[in-house]
Amino acid sequence: MPPPSPPPATPGIRIERRSNPGGVNIKGKEYAIAWLSSEPVNSMTLTLWRSLLATLDYLENDATIRGVVFASDLRKPIFTAGNDINELHAPSTSATRYAEFWKTQTTFLCRLLRSPLSTVCAIRGACPAGGCAVSLCCDYRAQTTHGTFGLNEVALGIPVPKFWARLFVESATSRADATLALLRGALLSPAEAKGIGLIHELAASDAALLPTAERALATLLKLPDDARAATKANVVRAFSEEWEAYIAEEARGGWAMLNEPAIETAMGNVIERLSSGKGKGEKKPNPRAKM
Q1: Average pLDDT over residues 90-100
Q2: pLDDT band for position 29 (50/70/90)?
Q3: What would the mean pLDDT of 115-138 be, rounded to a whole number?
Q4: Per-residue confidence (pLDDT) for residue 43, from 0 to 100
Q5: Read out DSSP for 20-38?
Q6: What are the residues whose beta carbons fall under 8 Å from the beta carbon of 290, sequence distance 6 or more?
Q7: What's 44's DSSP letter?
Q8: Of 91, 118, 108, 90, nearest to 36 (Cα)?
Q9: Region entry Disordered: which residue ranges (predicted)?
């Protein structure tokens, strides 16, 4: 077998190849850690979504790779702070860029949801909005006991995207509790998220998180890839295809919404709050927000 091709240029993501997840020898094949490393908070810009999509393309086309763990390599305990506010603030972007942003983001999420790879999300600390959506598209989610988890768009004055909301509710063991969390714009504690099935396992410490995720991956990789991938496709294909078919319509509707005066004002207020140091986003002069 020829040596693997070098990874593509993926700004904000570092791809690390490993073998024997959880110390288990799995037929000599490898897996990858996709480290999200865009300091300071992994703001999900168009560039980062492009990098995520390129990373998934690369890993799926490498016959030696059977699974991937998505994890944060930030100094702060943050998986990602969510979508970059500047991608959602109409005066800061354009209709063309927003359409590309939404298409790239949603294409990645749909592809990740139905990926033939085994996928695990190792969530260290905060995981709101866009980061939560990424994790929900993975087969398994492990999180530290500190942090947050949820889709908090309502608290910021915008609706939760249609398929994000559906995925959140359908991933939970309690539809009522998950729906109420969305309506409240709530960020759940890891224990609360685990209590309704959104998180599969809690790691006792930051140091224990990646080994926990790798053990979960090892359990998946012990089984035949083709059978597992076909079963996943049977479960999620129809949902992911419906989601993907909605991209253009959702982007048009989203852009119209972002240009509504009340929404534009709300987004501007978020930028002002973060720029003044009252939020947990980027430092000046590039504010970021959890969306």
Answers
A1: 97
A2: confident
A3: 98
A4: 96
A5: SGGG---TT-EEEEEEE--
A6: 81, 82, 126, 128, 129, 152, 156, 280, 281
A7: B
A8: 108
A9: 1-20
Distances (CA, A) of 83 to 86, 156, 269, 288: 9, 12, 16, 8
pLDDT score of 171 more than 80: yes
Sign of the torsion angle spanned by Cα atoms 242, 243, 249, 253: positive
Residue-range domains of the chain with CATH = 13-275 (3.90.226.10)
Cis before 40? omega within 30: yes
Is the Cβ–Cβ distance between 130 and 44 less than 8 Å?
yes
Q: Are 165 and 190 in contact (CB under 8 A)?
A: no
* Distance (Å, whole) CA 3 – CA 276: 50
Residue 59 Cα to chain centre, angstroms: 17
> Which residues are paired to 30 by β-bridges?
19, 65
Q: Considering the entire predicted model, what is its pTM?
A: 0.92
The sign of the torsion formed by the CA atoms of 163, 164, 169, 171 equals positive
